[in-house]
Amino acid sequence: MNILEFKYTNLSQDYELLFELMQTQRVICLVDNNECTDICATRAVQDNGYFSIGARGIEYIGAFEFKDKSAKEDFIDQCKKSNIRFIEPK
User: Of 57, 56, 50, which is closest to residue 78 (Cα–Cα)?
Assistant: First the structure.
């Protein structure tokens, strides 16, 4: 077993759920970055429709609404590309 891997049974990749949850709360996430895993959190700025995941000034996901793509679609696409996992709140 790689001691650098996170082993949680409650990690999710349900990005629709993550997008819903982040409307009302910050959610703890894991992101793969250059051969390591970083712990980060969601952030939603409702007044300008900006949705992000980041930590310590590093932004891993930054989603906006585009002419041909909603902010939600952009967010989900970026989550898939970055292999985002999150801890589902109880």
Answer: 50
The number of C-alpha atoms within 13 Å of 5 and in the hemisphere containing its C-beta is 6
Question: pTM for this one?
Answer: 0.82
Listed in sequence order, the DSSP H helices in 22-58 are: none
Measure the CA–CA gap between 52 and 22, rounded to whole angstroms.
9
Domain spans of the chain? 11-85
Quote the tokens at residue 83. Answer: 């292999």
> What is the radius of gyration, based on Cα positions, of the chain?
13
List, in sequence order, every beta strand (DSSP E) within the chain: 11-12, 28-33, 36-45, 50-55, 58-63, 85-87
Rounded to whole angstroms, how far apart are CA atoms 33 and 9? 21
Mean pLDDT score across all residues of the chain: 84
